[in-house]
Every structure is written in C-alpha cells, then in structure tokens.
Amino acid sequence: MRFAWLVFLFSLSFVYPQTERERITTENAQELSEVQSRTYEETIIRDLTFQPASGDLFIIRLNRFEGLAGDIVPLDENTLNEIPSDQFAKATAFTFSPDGSRFALGTGQGEIIVYNTSQWEQISTIHTSVDVVNDIAISPDNAYLGATFGVSEIVAEREYAFQLFDLVSGEEVASLPPNSADVYGRGMTFNESGEVVFFSTVDLASGTGQVYVGNTRTHELTETYSGCNATYGDLLFETKMQVLFCISEQGVELLDSTSATDAVVRNLVVINEGESITQVALNPDESLLAVGYFKSIRRSDGGPSVTNAGMIKIYDVETGEELIMLEVPKGAITSLAFSPDGTLLASGGTDGTVRLWGVVDG
User: Fold this and answer.
1) Residues 6+ apart with CB under 8 A from 155
2) pLDDT, tens digit, 9 for 90 and up, residues 114-127
3) Cβ-contact 360, 20 below 8 angstroms
4) Which pTM does this prediction carry?
5) Whose C-alpha in 109, 223, 325, 359 is 20 to 30 A from the C-alpha of 216?
C-alpha cells in the first residue's frame, strides 16, 4: 500500500513539474506571480498555515452551508494535492507551535485539541468557555496556549473573550471576560520569549476595538494599548523592531510593544476608498509584510458596488513602500501565510481557492 502511494506521488511530479524557487525578498518581490492553485466548490478557505518542519500547507476548508467549523486538509506545498489524513476534528482555528512540535485546533464545540507532531498523537484536550475559537497561538517556549473567542448572543457566567492556558496541564491561568454580549476576541500572538501575550477584542455595537497586553509569568492582563482601534483580525509581533502589527480601520499600524501609552509608532499601510484589510503575514526574516484585502468594485451601470474581489499587497517593512499588488478577481482574501523557507506566499479566499505565489528562477 505504501509503495502504491509512493508511485502515485512520483507520478504527480510529471503532472506538476518542479521549478527552482527563489526566496522572496524586497529586491525580487515585484516578480511575484501565481505558481499553483486549487479550487474547492461551494467552499470558503477559513484559514491556512504551513507546517514548520515539512513545509506542507494546512487549510481549513469551510462548506458555505455548514456553519463555522470546517475540515482540516493537509496539502503538498508544491502540487497542492491533498495528503491523506482523517485524524482531525472539524475546526474553527488552528496553529503550529513556532518550533513545529505541537499542533492545536479549536473544534467549534468548546474544545482545543493538542497534538504532538512527531507521531501526530493527541496529547491533551483543553475545555474552553466558549464554543467558537476565533484565533489560537502557542508560545515559543511551548509553555502556554492562548485563544480568543466569539461570544454568544447572551453572555453567561464563565464566558470569555480571551483565555490563557498552561499547555502541559491544560489549566486556565488567565482570562478576560467580555463586558457585553457585543464584545468578542479577535487576533492574538506572543512575543519572541513567550513572556508577553497580546490579543484584541472588538465591540460590534460601537465598532471599536482594543488591544491588550499580558504577562504570562504573573498572569496579569491589565494593560491596554492606546491609539489603535483594532477593529479587524490579525496581530503580528515583529522581533527586530519589537513592534506589534495591528489592523485598524485606518490600515496597518505599528505599535511599540514595550509601551502601552502612545503606542502607535507609525501607520505602515493606509486603506484606500473601497478597500478593507482582512489578513496580514510576515515573511520569515520579517522584511516583508503581505496584506490581504477585499474591495468594492463599482458597477458600470452605476448600481451598488459589489464586494466579490480581493487583492494582496506586499510592503517593505522598513520603508513602508508598496512593492507589488496581486489581483484576485473572484474572492476576498481570508488567509495568508509565508512558507518556512520564505519561497512561497499562500493565500485563501472566499472563492474557495488556495493560491501559491512565488518567484520562479528563469
């Protein structure tokens, strides 16, 4: 059986001939183009990420008509062919630990399941306060797991916008309850040591967002950042400048991670009319920021604008210069990730398409 599978993989190399890929840099980002794609019908790509060790691409494939949790599907990073796997529950969010040794998913049923990736063994199940996990991250030291949540229509006791867990024991060590039924958790991340955790919430009633910072050692979640109205999803921590990338209604803002007062360093990306930012991703050496959008397209007959298109812009992190814009005509961008070796950018969209972008040598 294994021999047959190897023969099948070998045959795929003729269908999808491999070409030499260059590492994506500030010097060659203008040469980015689509190198591979795969489309699933009646599907939204809810999330995607690369496995640090193998480089394989994991996606959450969400059926448009089946709620918030979708199937986790591993894909070969070169061909986008599915890698057989049936051990995963349906998920609303997932993540690998930075060293690739752990994989965690939120089931959409109030559980987070953690796996050891060496044998893909389930090593623990963490019971959360809320069914829908919006974002999830593991600290670089593999000591903590944090998660943000969608909050129910009626806020009940023991429901939270954010929870921090001891990764080994699964016990909650810190949490932030929402102050109303309209507040829920969005993005989250850790700093490079794992000692600091950042997360954001949004109030749907007022349209305002908030970024919080906490200490994983003292379990205190007391400070909030001023200046960034974090109304959208992702938060990213950049180690060189010690800044936090925050998506706001103005664009992408850089926050000083060492000071919560007057934290905005500068606006890296400014949103133009008809655009909304959905996702951001840093390349491995943190020199490039990929920004995903959905945009409104004006109709030729003067009717209402139709939002059914997306685009990706690549920026130089140091200068803020826009290096290239990649058009995605039929689907807003829902997810972005760079490959561990920095040679690929993966995107997922509302059109059910996974795309790989790269710079091909020759």
Assistant:
1) 177, 178, 180, 181
2) 999 999 999 999 99
3) yes
4) 0.89
5) 109
